Amino acid sequence: MIRYSIIAFFMAVVGMSHAQNIQGFVYDLVSSQPIQNVEIKNIRTKEVTNSDRNGAFKIEGQVNDYLAVQIFGYEADTIFYYDDAIRRIYLNKDESILTIDEVLVKRLTDNVLAKELEKARNAGKIVEIPRNQGGIKISPSRLFSRESKNARRSMDILYEEYQARKIDRRFTKHLIASLLPLNEADIALFRERFRPSVEFIENTTEEDLRAYIIESYTVFKNEKK
């Protein structure tokens, strides 16, 4: 009996050691004010929680989980939890194209980023294809309008962030920590110094990415001497 109790206790401890919480805050995208009572659902576990008056939430989950986020009056969104860090989720309640700057764009979730990029791309189009005539013609009014210029500027900023996130999803501090004996500060330096290109990330395998990280570590160690 004692033997079985020890085994059960050991299994419980192991289970607890693998338990993980995803923590974060939910804010309004434009005002940066916290949003209370937002529903957050872990799609894998089906667990549901709600944000408190400070916009804070905690839900059981792990790296690579997806969180469905929704509240009446805001666009529903899905968050990919690709690194074990506190998440700040910004929800958008305005359907119009946002006035984008480098600070605001970093608050966008992946889904909202893709939507805003598509909006900016459509608003910034400068060509027209006549239905009853062949060929393509340039539209000067759209080419030189302030709205079109702002849309194309927004598209550039949005696309740059979109590409950066492709890298961040795979070149994570979680992956680096699993391969290299680095503390948190050194991991941040390593990620900045050896950040791969988008082309590399899009075409490399997981095995090759791990090899790249390990090979880069040799250079990193020599630079710190």
Describe this structure in words.
With 225 residues, this protein is of the alpha+beta class. Among the domains are: 1-94, Carboxypeptidase-like, regulatory domain (Immunoglobulin-like, Sandwich); 171-224, no CATH class. Helices cover 48% and strands 18% of the residues. It is built from 9 helices and 9 strands. It has helices at residues 2-18, 102-105, 110-123, 140-144, 146-170, 173-179, 184-193, 198-203, 206-224, and strands at residues 21-28, 39-42, 48-50, 56-60, 65-70, 77-81, 87-91, 127-128, 137-138. It has a 4-stranded antiparallel beta sheet. Helix 3 (110-123) packs antiparallel against helix 5 (146-170). The radius of gyration is 23 Å and the shape is globular. The model is unreliable at 1-18, 127-131 and 133-144 (pLDDT under 50).
